[in-house]
Structure formats: structure tokens, C-alpha cells
Amino acid sequence: MTRDLDAARQVVELITGGWRAQALYTAVKLELPDHIAAGRTTDADLASATGAKEDGIHRLMRLLVAMGVFAGTPDTGYRNTPVSTALLDGPESMRDMCLLYGEEFYAAWAHAHEAITTVSSGFELAYGQPLYSYLGRDPDTSARFQGAMKAGNLFFEYVPDVFDFSGKTVVDLGGGNGALLAAILSSVPDARGVLMDREHVAPVARAHLAATVGADRVEVVGGDMFSGVPAGGDVYLLCRVLAGHSDDAVVGLFEHIRRGMADASSRLLLLDRLVVEENSTVLPALWDLHLLMTTGGRHRSLEHLRALLTRAGLYIERSADLPVETTALIAAARY
Predict the structure, then answer these.
(1) How far is 203 from 201, CA to CA, in rounded Å?
(2) Fewer beta carbons within 10 Å, N or C terminal of the chain?
(3) Is a pLDDT exceeding 70 seen at residue 104?
(4) Which strand (E) or helix (H) includes residue 109?
(5) Cβ pair 60, 31 in contact under 8 A
(6) C-alpha dihedral over 107, 109, 114, 115, to 10 degrees?
(7) How crowded is residue 18: how many other Cβ atoms within 10 Å of its Cβ?
(8) Structural domains in the chain plus CATH codes
(9) How crowded is residue 186: how many other Cβ atoms within 10 Å of its Cβ?
(10) DSSP conformational letter for 157
């Protein structure tokens, strides 16, 4: 039998994917994009700046240049590409995402076999406690987690294009550092906001929103949204926060929201990645499996979410597509 060389090469590409990810993580851990931006462009310069052996830097850079992360040669010097520029330390950086995925989440994926065969959290297997409990006890990892969430929020600025927030009170549940709420309030000057998240996240959100849209336009509430939500909202937002929770818990949250709605014109906006069982693309399927590794959770299909909303007395009024394979579901209450 003649070996299928294309298939064999594809297998090699797949099984070495983790090596590529760890090479990128190492570059970020060593702050190589920042050092190159500062003019340290040779193997010797980078070794001196990082405290690493020059041979190690040389071999790492050879791979990263081949991957398109950096450009240049050891003789002419290295330079940043758009990929490594996205990893420079700064407000819009993907640096925290790279560090979190290269450390804590990489450790979670090391337990993929057991997590998949038992449908349990790889993170909990690795660290002995659920992800969110760990984040509540480790401020550094929590800060990286919030930075990673922000880096993945490429669709936030487009949310005001799919819903009219004018003059409304917007309640962002599980709103993290407030980046989504800030994007909405910045785009809609006559809207006001309320953000609810866990107690250890609330101070971060309060500082971010005060700096971006002003403390007078927003209230930050610390607490558990599954126990109750702020009442009187015109619009309730749930952005990528349902995946780690059971169907019954999600229905209970929907019921809290329905009771909290100001009136019949109030709406719930669900912003999430949806899974499909046929003709799925790679990214939604990959994110779904990643949720199993990190929280033991899952992404849901449109039909699944529709059924949960129905149980809570809500229905999907319409949907809209957002960038990076995100869907907005606009739900209203049945009266």
C-alpha cells in the first residue's frame, strides 16, 4: 500500500500544534516582542535582555521566524510582524491570552483524555479546584484571565450595530472588567449602565468604567447573578457567561432576568458562540471542547438555548451575526 504523504504531513502538522503554541508562549513570557520593539534585535541582545542562553534564543527565533511571528535573520536583526505586534504589552494586547493559554490552560489540556472520557473539567483535574474558585484566590491569574477575555472580545464594538440601546438602562451580568458595557455606553451617550460580577471582579470593573465612560453613568454591583439580578433594566446582557453552568442554573438565571425586566419592552441579549452538529467549522467546535477542559462546561446550540428560554417564559425575537463567529440572540418575555 502506498503511503498517503499528504495525510501523513497533515498528521504531523496536527500533532506538533502544541509545540508551536508553547514556542509562542515562551516568546511572550520572555517579552521578546517588546525587546525587539525596543531595538534589541540580535540573538545576543535578546539573550542579554532575558537572561536566557543565546543558543536557546537562536533556536526559538528560527522557529518563530518560520512561523511568521517575527521576520529577519540573526545577521540582519529581527523585527516584529503584525502577529508579534499584537503581543506587545499594552491595552489591546493579546499577551495575557497567550500567557494564560500557555500556562494554566495548557495544564488543563494535559488532562484531555480523562476530561473527555469522564466529561469533567481538565482544569479541576490539574489544579484540584474549579477554575472560578482558583481565580478568586489568585489575583495574578485572575488579572490574566480578564486580560485574555478582553483580547478575545473583538466583536464588542459591533454590538451597538445590532441593537438600539438609546436612552436605555443596560444591565451587564457577568460583565468582567466592563469592556463590553464601556463599548456600548461610549457609542450611545444617553444610555446608562449597571454591571454585576463576582466581588473580586467588581473593583476592576469599577476602575475601568470610571476611566472610560465616567462613574456617573454606571453602577457596579458585586454578587452572584444566579442568586438574583438588579431589577429595572431595559436591556440585560449575557456575554459568554453561560457555558460553565447547568441547564437548570441557566433557566433560573433567565427567570431572575424575566422578573427583573422593567416592562414589556425590555429585552435580553445573549452574545455567545453557538455550536452546530452538521458542517461545523473548527473554531466553534474547538472552543466548545476548550470549555470542557477549563470549566467542565459547553457551548449550546440555538435549539438548546431556545428550549431553556422557553422554560423561563422567554422567546427569541430575532438573531444577528457578529464578528469572530459570535451570535446575538435578542429575547423578549411572554406575557
Answers:
(1) 6
(2) N
(3) yes
(4) helix 104-109
(5) no
(6) 110
(7) 12
(8) 5-85 (1.10.10.10), 95-150 (no CATH), 153-274+296-333 (3.40.50.150)
(9) 14
(10) G
